[in-house]
Amino acid sequence: MGTNGNGGQPVLVVLQLTGGNDYMNTVVPYSDPLYYDNRTTLAISEDEVMKIDDSVGFNPAMGTLKDIYDRGEMAVVHGVGFPESTRSHFRAMDIWHTSEPHKVGTEGWLGRAIRDLDPEGENPVTAVNIGQGLPRALVAPGASVASVADLSTYGLLTGIEERQERAKMLDRFANIYSPAIGSGPVMDYLAQTGLDALKGADMLKTAPAGYKSNVEYADIPLAKKLRDVATIHTADLGTRIFYTEHGGYDTHASQVNNHPKLLSDVASAVTDFWDDLKAQDAADNVIMFVFTEFGRRVKENGTGTDHGAGGVSFIIGPKAEGGQHNEYPSMKPEDLREGDLAPDQDFRGVYTTILEDWFELDAKPIVNGTFEKPALIQN
Prior knowledge:
Blueprint: E1 11-18, E2 27-28, H1 33-38, E3 50-51, E4 57-58, H2 64-70, E5 74-81, H3 89-98, H4 109-117, E6 127-130, E7 145-148, H5 160-181, H6 185-205, H7 207-210, H8 221-233, E8 241-247, H9 255-279, E9 286-292, E10 311-316, E11 323-325, E12 345-346, H10 347-358, H11 364-367
Parallel strand pairs: 1-8, 1-9, 5-11, 5-12, 6-7, 6-8
Antiparallel strand pairs: 2-4, 3-4, 5-10, 9-10
C-alpha cells in the first residue's frame, strides 16, 4: 500500500453530482428497445456507446472512465435510491446527506463517521470539504471539518505577526458573548470551533508548498477541486474524508448539449486525480464514491429529462470491486414507479459497505438501521 498519503489509513473522497444525473444516458441500456422508444431525441446510438457488456455501456463522453472500469477499478452500482422516492432536489439530497428518509435529520452520515474516526476531536482536518459552504453530510456536533473554497488562497490570519492578533480576536469574541450566553457548553463549543478553524487553516496552508506533480490537470473547476484533494492527501495531514461536488445535472432542457459536457468534465478530472495519486504512490488507501440525489424520468420531455428516482453510483479506486453490481432496473411500463426507474439498491446499503468494509466502523448507528450491503470493496 502506498504511504505517501495519510500514512496508509483508509481515505474516502465523495463526489456529489448535484441536480439529478441522468442514469439512463450515463450507463446506457443500449440493447433494450424501450430505451429508444422513450428517448427519441436524447438516445445514444448503439454505435456510439462504449460497451461494457452485451446490454449496457458508458456514455461516449465518459472517455477515460471506461479505461478505469476496464482495469477493474470501478464498481458500477445500479438502481440506487430509497423507498418512496421524492422528486424534490432539496428533500432528496437531505435524505442522502442525513440517512433519514422518514424525517428531517439533524446530523450528517459522514459527520457521525467523523466522530467515530476522531472521537476526541484531535484533528481539525479529519474531514475537508472542497467548495463553498459545508454539506449537511459532514455536519454533526463534535465532528471536525474544514471547508476550503480555494486551497491556494486559504488561510485565516496565518502570518506570524497575526497570531497574537488572532488570539486577541478570540478573546474579544469570548468577552462580547459570554455575558449573554454564559461560560457553559455553548461558549465552550463556540470557542473550540474558533480554535479548530484557526488550527485547521494553519495545517492546510502548508499543503501546497509540499505538493509536486507531473500530472497536468484539465483546466476545469472540478479538476482544480480534485487537485486540491490530492494536495491535501499527499501532505499527510490525517484527513480521512474529502467532499466535493459538481453541479449542473438538472437537465430539464438542452440535455443533448449539456449532459455530455458534464460527463466529460467528470471523466477528465477523475482520471487526472487518479493518475496523480498513482504517480505519487498515494492511491492504494483511497476510494472515491460518486453519487447523485436521483435519476431522471424514463421518458424524455423533448429537450431534456425531468426528475426521477432510481440512479447509479460509482466506487472508484484500486481497492474497488470492479464490475457491475445489482441489476439495471426494468423499463417495462408495469415495473416503473410513476414513470421512474424503481430503485432496488438502498443507498444506505452502499453507505454500510463504505463504513464497514473500508473504515471498519459500526454502520448501524450511522445509517440508522441494517441494510443489505453490496460487495463494492476488495477484501
